[in-house]
Write a structure and sequence with these properties.
The chain has 119 residues and is mainly β. Helices cover 0% and strands 59% of the residues.
């Protein structure tokens, strides 16, 4: 299984970015999908989660500014980030619970995509 993030980059404060994360492999099913982030010198922190049925939860630091969504047909999760702040600068990681054919469910991580918010 591979989780590949894309969409990161440099954006000015107040701007927007949309991250994508596509899962590939011999996938039977994808359950919870989530985004985490890690700023320099800090621990990785949870940002948002979306269930297979579309239920979403957000950390207090991004609630109201970020929106998580998914396209089950494309095995892809998105993170729409609006009103970005310098403190949102971090490497953003995709995380998912995935079951392969004839395998148990395991938790997988992507390699991350850099988001930098700066003027």
């Amino acid at each position: 299984v591979q989780l590949v993030e894309s969409g990161g980059g440099l954006v000015q404060p107040g701007g927007s970015l949309r991250l994508s994360c596509a899962a590939s492999g011999n996938i039977f099913g994808i359950y919870d999908m989530a985004w985490y982030r890690q700023a320099p010198g800090k621990q990785r922190e949870w940002v948002a989660t979306i269930t297979s049925r579309g239920g979403a939860a957000y950390s207090t630091s991004v609630r109201g500014r970020f929106t998580i969504s998914r396209d089950n047909a494309k095995n892809t999760v998105y993170l729409q980030m609006n009103s970005l702040k310098p403190e949102d600068t971090a490497v953003y990681y995709c995380n998912a619970d995935i079951r392969l054919l004839a395998e148990p469910t395991y938790n997988y991580w992507g390699r991350g995509t850099q988001v930098t918010v700066s003027s």
